[in-house]
């Protein structure tokens, strides 16, 4: 009989980490705001407008307080981290919310690989009995502007490259340009 009157239900409580700048002053202001909100809701709209006005004023003060706390915290923190670039980038990641990975997630290479293997297996299982896809035949393509490049053309293309390169390039562009004639002799002769 109790199960019928008061059914059992499961509730999921998600813990959300508090911001690092949210201190006791913010908690007190939030508590006052929620109390005024409950009072204003209890009084209703048609009754005395004083609780609603007090709630709106407290809400405005609370939002101003949060903005000033957040702004002053991050300004101070980023100013202090300017000497250490690694800490500065960590602070930027934290500021942008990129450091909050779920605590129960394991993002190692094996779980990543396993996820994609399972995903491919699921797709193959779902489409196992399906007909092969049909597509219209492709038109024949003609490439009238294709020409055979001579070694001189290749050297001219190399020398026309911009002098940009990155750290992952196996050879800097300036060195490739300087040695283009040598490479030509190596491959031809």
Give an overview of the whole structure:
It is a single chain. This protein has 189 residues and is mainly α. Among the domains are: 18-96; 158-188, no CATH class. It is 58% helix and 0% strand. It has helices at 2-5, 24-43, 50-80, 85-96, 109-126, 151-159, 173-178, 180-188. Helix 2 (24-43) packs antiparallel against helix 3 (50-80) and helix 3 runs antiparallel to helix 4. It is extended and about 90 Å long. The model has no long low-confidence stretch (mean pLDDT 82).
List the helices and strands and how they pair.
Layout: H1 2-5, H2 24-43, H3 50-80, H4 85-96, H5 109-126, H6 151-159, H7 173-178, H8 180-188
* Largest sheet descriptor: none
Tell me the Rg in angstroms: 33 Å
Net shape: extended
The sequence of SSEs as H and E is HHHHHHHH
Structural class based on helices, strands and sheet pairing: mainly alpha
| Count of individual helical segments | 8
Give the terminus-to-terminus CA distance. Answer: 96 Å
Measured by DSSP, the beta-strand proportion falls in under 5%
Let me know the average pLDDT: 82
Model regions low in confidence, pLDDT < 50 over at least 5 residues: none
Helix content: 55-70%
Number of strands: 0
